[in-house]
Amino acid sequence: MKNFYNDKELLSAYLDGELSQAEKKYLEEKIKTSLELQKELADIKKLKDLTASSIEKISGSPFFDTRVLASLNQNPSSKLKLAKWIPAAALLFLTIGLMILLKFNPNFINHLIEEQKSNLAGFYKQNLQPLLYATNLTNEDIFNFAVYQQLPLDSTNQQMLKLGYDPQGAEYFEIKKIDDADKMQPVGNLRKFVTALGLGDLETRQIDSIIGSYSEQLSSLVLVSDKNAVAINPNIWNTRKAILADIISFAQKHASDNLNKIVSADVANFDVSSVAKWVSEAKNTKDDQYIFFTPDSIFKENFEFDIADFKKNMKNVDEDLRHVSEKNKNVQNFSFYMDSTFNHRKRSSSLSHQFKVFTNNNFVKVTLQNSDIPDIDIQNIELPDFDSIAIIINEATKNVTVGRPPANSVPFDNKNFKFEYKTDNPKKGKKIEFNLDSLMNLKNIDIDSLNNSINKNYVNNFLNDSLMIFQNKELKKEMDNLRKELKRFRQQMKNYENKDDENNQNNLREIKNNGAEVIQI
Amino acid sequence: MDFEDKIRKDMPQPKILILDDDFSLIKRFIDGEESVFGELLKRHKDKVRNIIYITLTNSDLVDDIAQEVFITVYRNLKSFRFESQFTTWIYRITINKCKDHLRKKNIRRIFLPLNDEIEEPAFESVNENSDIKQIVRNAIAALPDKLRIPLVLKDIEGFSYQEIAESMDCEIGTVKSRIFRAREALKKLLQPLEKELME
């Protein structure tokens, strides 16, 4: 085959008259004996002719000479040569300029970057407002935050802020979409906890006020702006601990027996006064360094958020109710967009040593590499491990049934409101097996009545006028006829048994034929 | 005196021998007689323009590129070394200019948005009845540059392999194999029309 290809190449050159004598002789010998080469030769010849005839010469251009000679006389060569160097020269001047600038002002670029940074920080610092404005934070939310470390970020509960510690002990916060696993039970965890502790009316109100007192502080710790920026104060970790400590120490003070039942005595037994001291210290620790989490970068910046000022502002706007509701709506509709702009962080995360960022479609996790949490400086206080207590409380109060609290009327705005709790008591200690029957029982569905209704509907509405039922009728009629025929046949057989053999035989044959006919029908 | 004059008049006057081959013209050009460049231009413009036309498969740019060729020739003629034919030299310049243009066009195409791509007409249709010729022209235009150029130089311009090799700055063996490959490719492209073409 390779030889044949070589021969074909030789054929091509042969037709072009470009073979040496020896090659020509060799090829001509071969062509004589090979039909294939002969055909190939004819093909190439045809192709060569086609190529040659396909393109006609371009028509002459009468003014071409004049044009060329004129352009030669213009002698643009020097101009052209200069023009060629313009970009290179520009680049050279630029480089030299930059070199001189950096020589005499080496910090120029750093300044530029710093300036841009502060511009950026300023941009994101505008219009920051508390995401969880005090009035929108319920005690349940705060309790859930203290125990489960998660705060709902928007009114529709589509996103939440979750705090935690990674295995290395570094603090992290996450902003993520709430999935089913994270959804809070409708029945309040705080109520369950209170019920489990068996707190009285007064004490319940006390714990409510304790928790409520944190709402303002908490709301100033998470700020958002309309530019998709979130500012989180690192003090939030301490605040969360303080709330939990406050709740537990209150519980220990007022219902230590029940608390000991929930969590084991040795865990629950701690020095209330020192914890209280720590809590008050933690409450007063202020930190003006916020962690700004923005689509562009993540940075720590000083930012003083004056909650009192904000409240005053809010009060001012309060007069215009419509306006305020709009403003509230804006805040409440906040949702943090985790779009592709965060993806570049994956690459640049190594640049910022302070934070480690992990992003996903509906999930952003920021781990604080250095300990940014302000220390609360109190010596000789051993805090119990609140996190493990929280877990125990969580487990223990899971199955607590919330009793119906006394529906005391609460004076409010000269009207009496009653709060009633709808409770749903699961049967305790009863193992429930689920199968179809139990589900049916559960729903009180009477299978018979169901069947009846189905049949009724089926016959009445569906099959009554269908072709199928019509055919069924025909068939039934046919079958009845057949049955009658068979009956008659049997009767006849009985009669014939009594008659003589020959007759019997003949009749039998006849009847059999009849029967066959009948059956054939 | 009159007689002598008469004789002079009647006798064929000895002509001053004017050599007008390319080399002589170039020599005169080098000696300062720049006006002979017009003669060189007149002599070679058709071939140069035609080479550009068949190489680029496009007539729009022929004059522009041909002008560039002659400007280059004019500028470099004084350093011509008489080692090869003037035609070989000018054809090499022509083909290099064409290759430059094709290269630039390909680069430009990379930066063009897809829908902006301007399809240059591949050989204008000469007349309505030349369907088959048009098909063949399109097929030739579809060949890769390095196969198409030697093929058209051979089959249309009638260059020898040696001339093609010199113009394209490559070996004769390469020319031979490229022309063969060009024909094979052309055959494949025209395969669907084999019956019509081979009639």
Protein architecture, described:
The complex is a heterodimer of chains A (521) and B (199). Chain A has 20 helices and twelve strands. With 521 residues, chain A is of the alpha+beta class. Chain A has a five-stranded antiparallel sheet, covered by helices on one side. Chain A has a five-stranded antiparallel sheet with strand order 2-3-4-10-9. A two-stranded antiparallel sheet of chain A has the order 11-12. The radius of gyration of chain A is 47 Å and the shape is flat. By secondary structure, chain B is mainly alpha-helical. Chain B is 67% helix and 0% strand. In chain B, α5 (86-111) packs across α8. Chain B is elongated. Chain B starts with a helix and ends with a helix. The A-B interface holds A 8-9, 12-13, 16, 18, 43-44, 46-48, 50-58, 60-61, 64-65, 67-69, 71-72, 77 and B 37-38, 41-42, 45-46, 49-50, 53-54, 59, 62-63, 66-67, 70-71, 74-75, 123, 126, 132-133, 136-137, 140, 151-152, 154-156, 160-161, 176-177, 179-180, 183-184, 186-187, 190, 197-198.
